């Protein structure tokens, strides 16, 4: 094989660029023999369905008299 052909063959991956990234997920085997897929990564593209609830403490309807 010619050396220049080997050089051109080595440059093919550089010319094509990186392959598209695959979705990353963790596949876990369950005890019953089934599997479950857990997605891993950034979920910034998903919008929350509702705004988060504000956490408030419970208060009595009237003020307690302190003695």
From TrEMBL:
<protein>
    <submittedName>
        <fullName>Uncharacterized protein</fullName>
    </submittedName>
</protein>
<keyword id="KW-0732">Signal</keyword>
<feature type="signal peptide">
    <location>
        <begin position="1"/>
        <end position="21"/>
    </location>
</feature>
């Amino acid at each position: 094989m010619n050396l220049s052909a080997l050089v051109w063959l080595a440059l093919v991956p550089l010319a094509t660029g990186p392959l598209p990234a695959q979705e990353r997920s963790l596949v876990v085997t369950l005890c019953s023999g089934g599997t479950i897929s857990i997605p891993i990564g950034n979920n910034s593209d998903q919008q929350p369905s509702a705004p988060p609830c504000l956490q408030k403490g419970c208060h009595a309807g009237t003020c307690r008299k302190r003695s």
